[in-house]
Amino acid sequence: MNGSDGEERVVHEVAMVVPKRVLEEEGDCVEFLVSELKKRGMVVDRVVGLADEFLKVAAPLETLGNAAEELHIRKPTRLGIDLPFEMQGSEAFIRQPDGSLFSWFERFRCYQHLIYGIVNCSRYDVTLKLDGREFCWVAGESLLRRLESEGVIKQMFPLHDEFKRKELLQTWALNWWNFTNQPIDQIYSYFGAKIGVYFSFLGMYTQWLIFPALLGFIMQMVDFGSLQFLALPIFFVSTILWAALFLQFWKRKNAALLARWQINCLVGPSQGYRFLGMEWSSLPFPKELIKNLGNERSKEKEAYQRYEWFAYRKRFRNDVLVIMSIICLQLPFELAYAHIFEIITSDIIKYVLTAIYLLIIQYLTRLGGKVSVKLINREINESVEYRANSLIYKVFGLYFMQTYIGIFYHVLLHRNFMTLRQVLIQRLIISQVFWTLMDGSLPYLKYSYRKYRARTKKKMEDGSSTGKIQIASRVEKEYFKPTYSASIGVELEDGLFDDSLELALQFGMIMMFACAFPLAFALAAVSNVMEIRTNALKLLVTLRRPLPRAAATIGAWLNIWQFLVVMSICTNSVLLVCLYDQEGKWKIEPGLAAILIMEHVLLLLKFGLSRLVPEEPAWVRASRVKNVTQAQDMYCKQLLRSISGELASLTKPEQEQQQDSERL
């Protein structure tokens, strides 16, 4: 259900793919599934495609509300308190920015609960059939799980809402005149908080790039002559302060977005008592620890501490394995590429070599990502998001080495600013072209190839070699589109991993070598304006609608950006030293001493700004404190009323006995 101003609009938001039936028979499992879905209050539309049949599922508001009530989804109320949803009191709950009662993440959870919640409640097994094949649906088993295991349900995926998709195409993807302005609230309502936060971050980053882009353009085009030794340090200091302030103000904007969207970061997908940010039901501790909770506190404390350090040790071991593999396997390959690049004289051959290098590295990094996923599966992490963050750190280590080790080689060994600038230009241009082709062309090629296979198969089945077969249904076109998945695998991350990785590598490139190539900030600003539109078109046109994710921040990427700012202080200081000490004397003269002092001052300023600039606006903090105070007052009053009711229900002898026990 989607709607605004109280108007209900039933939209098919989920599709299931089932095989085409050859025989019409009693007890058909697809017919049985459709009838069960309708009993649950859902609207089902059946569409026959070229090779498969599609079940489009929609849920009216009342059905979604009942599911949310069964799931005990906590939602913010007009009183400022998060309470479990109740359909009867739905008017008391705050609606989404688009006017709907539930967010896309909440709606998809309700769909999963409704569909997978169809269970055989009888005492007997039910025999189901499909084209002459029989199988049993045992008591207490989920119908969809059984159909998935039998191969009846091939896939289940979310569908695009055509009305909202076309609206976003006009106001966002095809609206080039707005540059960095985006309808963030509409993006959040349609794709969820994770994608909404990413595009908000990308838009703010591109807006903030205007200042260093103008400054870098002046530095690149104006010849300062003898003042170059003074202009570069000023530019370096300005970019570091700019980056530190940007990250702090992004934290403020992220907090404001979550407050506007009524998202409480402390509330997880399932509600209940929380322990260190986790649900009791999802704690990774052994069952015997939770079973004996509170029996012997000293032994219990010792067992938890032992288990905690055991988890840290496993994570540390995996991190060491990744670091050693980078040093022993990837470092020699990177140094060999950097050395060959240095001795080649032809610019065309250098571009070809860089393109081949990026293709090889892409394959090796995917292999490293799959190994990292296997290592993470052996770790003990509190939630899926923690595991995803662990994967991000490990894979970024691989990309960090492959992206920057060759540039460090040119800086430290050859100390040639012209060659370094040429390397940076080639990396920025080729990487931008590569990522653009990967984002735009690859999904379209996959989509075209799948349509071609389906049409060819249909022609072979019909025995006709002439005539063009059209795919008329939109749901079948959605089925042929690729998913929004990460290049390293779909286990823990979606396509935001690749987009965030591309952005982080770009930020590291322009920041860590700002003194060598100031114009890189202008190139990055232009690239990001195009990135916003191409990513929007990719999500709305060439890919399926992504699955919603609960995370409402950029997560581990913020720590990576903080790390890149610190690294840029060190690398730019080295660049200034190389520029100042061209003869390689490496003596602590006044100029070198000033650079070392400036480096330490910038490090102090970077960490000092994180304390001076609050991470959330005052109105957000005041609203949060107000909500907590109201919740405490309400719960205290309820507790007092319940205690008073219990005392009033006691008889007089029981009250006297209780008073005597209290005196004792």
Proportion in helices? 55-70%
Structural class: alpha+beta
Q: Looking at the structure, what is the overall shape?
A: globular
Task: Give a short account of the largest sheet.
Answer: 4 strands, antiparallel
Mean pLDDT across all amino acids: 78
End-to-end distance, in Å?
60 Å
Rg, please?
Answer: 30 Å
Name the beta content range.
Answer: 5-15%
Give the low-confidence spans. 266-285, 287-291
Q: Tell me the total number of β-strands.
A: 12
Question: What is the number of helical segments per DSSP (H or I, 4+ residues)?
Answer: 21
Task: Tell me about this structure.
The chain is α+β, with helices and mostly antiparallel strands. It is built from 21 helices and 12 strands. It has a 4-stranded antiparallel sheet, sandwiched between helices. The chain has a two-stranded antiparallel ribbon with strand order 4-5. Helix 11 (297-343) packs antiparallel against helix 12. The radius of gyration is 30 Å and the shape is globular. Its main location: membrane. It is a multi-pass membrane protein.
Question: TL;DR of this structure?
Answer:
This protein has 664 residues and is α+β, with helices and mostly antiparallel strands. It is built from 21 helices and twelve strands. Helix 7 runs antiparallel to helix 9, helix 12 (347-377) runs antiparallel to helix 13 (384-414) and helix 14 runs parallel beside helix 17.
Keyword list:
single chain; 664 residues; alpha+beta; four-stranded antiparallel beta sheet; two-stranded antiparallel sheet; 21 helices; 12 strands; globular; chloride channel activity
